[in-house]
Amino acid sequence: MTFPRVSARISGIAESATLKVDATAKALQAQGKQVISYAAGEPDFATPQNIVEAASRAVLDPKNYRYTPAAGLPELREAIAAKTLRDSGWGAAASQIIVTNGGKQAVYQAFATIVDPGDEVLLPTPYWTTYPEAVKLAGGVPIDVFAGADQDYLVTVEQLEAARTDKTKVLLFVSPSNPTGSVYSPEQVREIGQWALENELWVISDEIYQNLVYDGIRAVSIVEAVPELTDRAILVNGVAKSYAMTGWRLGWMVGPNDVIKAASNLQSHLTSNVSNISQRAAIEALTGPQDQVEVMRESFERRRNVIVAELNKIDGLYCPTPRGAFYVYPDVTGLLNRAWGGVTPTTSLDLADLILNQAEVAVVPGEAFGPSGYLRLSYALGDAPLLEGVQRLQKLFA
């Protein structure tokens, strides 16, 4: 008998579209092309100096050269517990927290821990490209629940209820959202959380962008809005976005004791402990001065204002104003099926290729996050390239 060289489970995984576009942009830049990339969800700022100095001290301390508990350093789990209480309103114990190699591992482990083959997971759409792949790896079935620009990309309870079946086990909840930047109001969060509670669903809530919000608002955690959900909720978070620490690979899960124990067992075989240097850096990030974090947030808000205003000058493009994260997600259906420089794009994938080829601007097409007809642009890049890239688009679509 001849066996496949790659398992069906792994061969079915799609490559991360955001990383693929970013890699393409970087390859073109290496060839001398003046490509401006809006692809990666990565702050352009340096990690704050106090965090770097904490890591430098950790490198010189021999106690960090050895294995530590798979679930994370006790000091870091305590710091995460304090942050979770402060920002999510959940007084979880340190024993209810597991430290992971980035938020992406936390997402994978959350689904792997509670999803069985055939379980359905409701995914508000547009969604981050990794979510459906993580669901499928766990044997689950992702169910898209789409909300367009006319709804500010925010799904309703009515839509969720219409998608629910007797196989629905989990609701994924993300606010602020990647890719749209949309933020649910406190009333919307409470309504969705109450619906999930009444239907005995699990909720996996990705809160990685919870501190990157604008216009004076606050992203309310679903477990703060509906505290009774804490027995059926998993929070996913990390230091990557708010602290400009994407390369440090430090995230975490918060959940009920039995789920965290099971996830810890999985991680003990999968990766063991996260790098102790990154863990020491994360302790400083969460417990040290927060002034640089606020400087970065204010910069993102300023950039958001610029990119939204400039994109909406393009006829045929509509860009809602996001209230969190650092992405815009314009509806570009008005640019499709029209000739631009001899090319007539019919999908947002075609349009992204056209933009890269003719304007040397890298964007991620909507197909990576759900239906066609949209583009994602990250404004986590410098002020000058951000403006120049949009001006190239204005010229291309004039």
Gist?
This protein is of the alpha/beta class and 398 residues long. The protein has helices at residues 8-11, 17-30, 49-59, 74-88, 102-114, 130-137, 157-163, 186-198, 222-225, 257-270, 276-287, 291-311, 348-359, 383-396, and strands at residues 36-37, 97-100, 120-125, 141-146, 168-174, 202-206, 233-238, 251-254, 327-328, 361-362, 364-365, 375-378. Strands 2-8-7-6-5-3-4 form a 7-stranded mixed β-sheet, with helices on both faces.
Would you identify the CATH architecture of the largest domain?
A: 3-Layer(aba) Sandwich
| Unreliable runs | none
Strand order of the largest sheet: 2-8-7-6-5-3-4
How much of the sequence is in beta strands? 5-15%
For the termini, the CA-CA separation is: 60 Å
* CATH-defined fold name of the largest domain: Aspartate Aminotransferase, domain 2
Biggest beta-sheet profile: 7 strands, mixed
**Portion of residues within helices:** 40-55%
CATH superfamily of the largest domain: Type I PLP-dependent aspartate aminotransferase-like (Major domain)
How would you characterize this protein structure?
The chain is of the alpha/beta class. The model has no long low-confidence stretch (mean pLDDT 96). The chain folds into two domains: 8-46 and 292-396, Aspartate Aminotransferase, domain 1 (Alpha-Beta Complex), CATH 3.90.1150.10; 49-287, Type I PLP-dependent aspartate aminotransferase-like (Major domain) (Aspartate Aminotransferase, domain 2). The strands form three sheets. Strands 2-8-7-6-5-3-4 form a seven-stranded mixed sheet, sandwiched between helices. A three-stranded antiparallel sheet has the order 9-12-11. A two-stranded parallel sheet has the order 1-10. It has helices spanning 8-11, 17-30, 49-59, 74-88, 102-114, 130-137, 157-163, 186-198, 222-225, 257-270, 276-287, 291-311, 348-359, 383-396; strands at residues 36-37, 97-100, 120-125, 141-146, 168-174, 202-206, 233-238, 251-254, 327-328, 361-362, 364-365, 375-378. The longest helix has 21 residues, at 291-311.
